[in-house]
Amino acid sequence: MSVYEQSALATKHALPSYLNADEIGPWGTYLQQVDRVTPYLGSLARWVETLKRPKRILVVDVPIEMDDGTIAHFEGYRVQHNLSRGPGKGGVRFHQDVTLSEVMALSAWMSIKNAAVNVPYGGAKGGIRVDPRKLSKGELERLTRRYTSEIGLLIGPTKDIPAPDVNTNAQIMSWMMDTYSMNTGATATGVVTGKPIDLGGSLGRVEATGRGVFTVGVEAAKLIGLPVQGARVAVQGFGNVGGTAGRLFVEAGAQLVAVQDHTGSIYNPLGMDAAALQEHVREHGGVKGFPGAEAIDTDAFWSVDCDILIPAALEGQINKDNAERIKARMVIEGANGPTTPEADDILHDKGVLVLPDVIANAGGVTVSYFEWVQDFSSFFWSEDEINARLVRIMQEAFAAVWQVAQDNKVSLRTATFIVACKRILHAREARGLYP
C-alpha cells in the first residue's frame, strides 16, 4: 500500500460520524494535509486534533416561495472551523454540488489562509445547495434573506463575517447585510464583506484575489529564475480571480495562451488580449466563441505548452489523471483546493513548483479584512493605498513561507501549513480550555 493510500485510509477512519465514510471528499483532502504537517509542529502537536474538528456546524433548511406559488426547500450550511485567532471569516457559495464535506474543508482552508497572511480571523464558510441560474432575481433574494435569517445566530461583525464566493456577489452581500441589520435593529455594515462601495464596501476588493495570485506568482518566478516577460500562461476559470490574474500577467509582459471555463476551452500559442477576453466573458457569459483564439478539447487544456498554470475554478481539478500531462513550471492555485494530494505528489516529482491556495489566493480575504477595518472606523482608504498594503502583506507572507520551505525541505503547501498551524495552535494553547 502506497503512502498516499495509507494516508487516505487513515483519513477515512478519522471522519466524523455525520459524513459518509465512503466518500471522504474535500474534508478528507484537508485532513491529509494536516497529517503531513503534524511532524513539524513540535510540542504543539498535542493540540493538532483541534484542527481536525470544526468548532461548530450549522445545517439549515431554507424554504422559500417560488414565483409560481410553490414552496421549495434548499439545504444550507455555515461551518465555523476555528475561532482561536479571531471571528470566523469565509465566503458563501450557491452551487448545486455544495456538500457538507466541501464546506467543512473550505472553512478549514480559511483558517489556514487567514493565519498564513496573519490577519486576525478564524476560518468559516457557508453554502446553499442550489443552482442559482434557475432562480429569478426575486427567488434569489428570498433564498438569500431566508438563509441569512437561519444562520443569524452564528454571524455578526465580531462573530463570523461572510463574503462572496462561487455564484455570490455584492448584491447577495447587500441582501445579507440588510437582513441581518433588520433582524438586529441596527445597520451593521461589518457583518459581511464584498459589499457595494455605497454600503461600506472597499475599493480594490473585486480584483484582490487575482492581484494576490499575480503578486505571489511574480515573487516565486524571481526565485526560480522564470522571467515573467514572455512567460506562457494558461488559466482555468476566467472570472474575478482568473481574469484579473491573467490580465495582470499579460500587462507584465506574459502571454495568455490558453483559457478554460464552464463554456469551453480556447488556445492561441501567440497569446490573447486578456482585457478583450474579460469583456467577451462579461458579454457572453464565458470564453466560448472568443474570436482571438481557437477552440480545443476540454482535456487538451491540461497538455498545452505553458510556463505558468493558474487553476482558478473549483476544487479537485488537477488530479492523478491529468497531473502527469501538465507542462508548466509553476502552478498558482487561484481556486480553493484545485489540486488533490496525489496530484500534488506527481507535480512535485516532476519538479513543478505549486503555489498553494492557502497563500496564493489569500488576497481576497486580506482586502476583506481591510473592508472590515474600514467599516469599524468609518474611514475609507484609496484604491492605491489598498493595493499597496495588499502587495506588501502578500510579499511578506510568501517570503516567510518560502523560508520555512527551504529550512525544512518541504513543499510550499506544507510550509504554509506549518506557518499557519503553528499560529493557530499557539493561540489555542495560550487561550487554554474553558471551562
From TrEMBL:
For this entry, list what GO says about its biological process: L-glutamate catabolic process
Residue limits of the Glutamate/phenylalanine/leucine/valine/L-tryptophan dehydrogenase C-terminal domain? 202-432
Which residue numbers mark the site Important for catalysis?
D165
Its source organism is: Comamonas kerstersii
Q: What is this protein called?
A: Glutamate dehydrogenase
Q: Which residues bind substrate per the record?
A: K89, K113, S368
Which SMART domains does its entry note?
ELFV_dehydrog
- Cite the CDD domains for this sequence: NAD_bind_1_Glu_DH (cd01076)
